Amino acid sequence: MKTCLWPGDNQLMRAYHDQEWCVPNHDDQYIFEMLTLEGAQSGLSWSIVLAKREGYKKAFHNFELEYCSSLTDEDLETIKERGYIIKHLAKLQSVRDNAKAILRIQEEFGSFANYLWRYVDFKPLINQWDTDAQIPAETALSKQISKDLKKRGFKFVGPVTMYSFMQAIGIIDDHVRTCPYHTSNR
Question: Per the annotation, does 4 bind a ligand?
Fold first, then answer.
């Protein structure tokens, strides 16, 4: 079977593709991790972000929401200077802001997963692409989620980032049809 081409020969990208990408996930801590990493990717390649993933986990205590929501500006500066992460202060500040926003959503919806998955009636959207080139960068749904998250105070959640995020947590399965990891082939 022909697999998706985008991971190339990069081992981290291949492992992410094979084990995580487009796999439905409802764990708020993991979802927060993916939101953080997708936001960090803005303007960069996914391979750079994956190479720094362990640094992010260490810096943000494995994406523990309460910890991240309580970070001070000084804490974020220290993380910026010492951490093996992308040293973009606004992206680092978004980790704190987004953690706070997720905690508010959890109060309203019971979980961040509930909030997100309700957009697709709690069932993943399974696409049937023949080539990687057919996969869109954004959709009406990613624009809708982006708009609502921004209203709720989230940062680095533009429509393109949200589309990648939906793939990351399995709301969308965008493996090409011939990929052994496509839902219909598992």
Answer: yes
Structural domain including 156 reads 11-185
Instruction: List active site positions.
Output: 16, 38, 46
In a domain, 31, yes or no: yes
* CA distances to 1, 36, 55, 170, 179 from 40, in Å: 32, 6, 12, 19, 27
> Is 182 one of the annotated binding-site residues?
no
Whether 1 is in a domain gets the answer no
pTM, two decimals, is 0.97
- Domains held by the chain: number: 1
Report helix, strand or coil for 32.
helix
pLDDT in tens, 31-86: 999 999 999 999 899 999 999 999 999 999 999 999 999 999 999 999 999 989 99
Whichever domain contains 84, its CATH number is 1.10.340.30
The C-alpha atoms of residue 99 and residue 120 are separated, in whole angstroms, by: 23
Residue 175, annotated as binding a ligand:
yes
Q: Helix, strand, coil proportions of the chain in percent (round to 5)?
A: 60, 0, 40
Look at residue 4 and tell me if it is in a domain: no
pLDDT tens digits along 71-84: 999 999 999 999 89
State the residue for tokens 């947590």: 169
Contact between 4 and 179 under an 8 Å Cβ cutoff? The reply is: yes
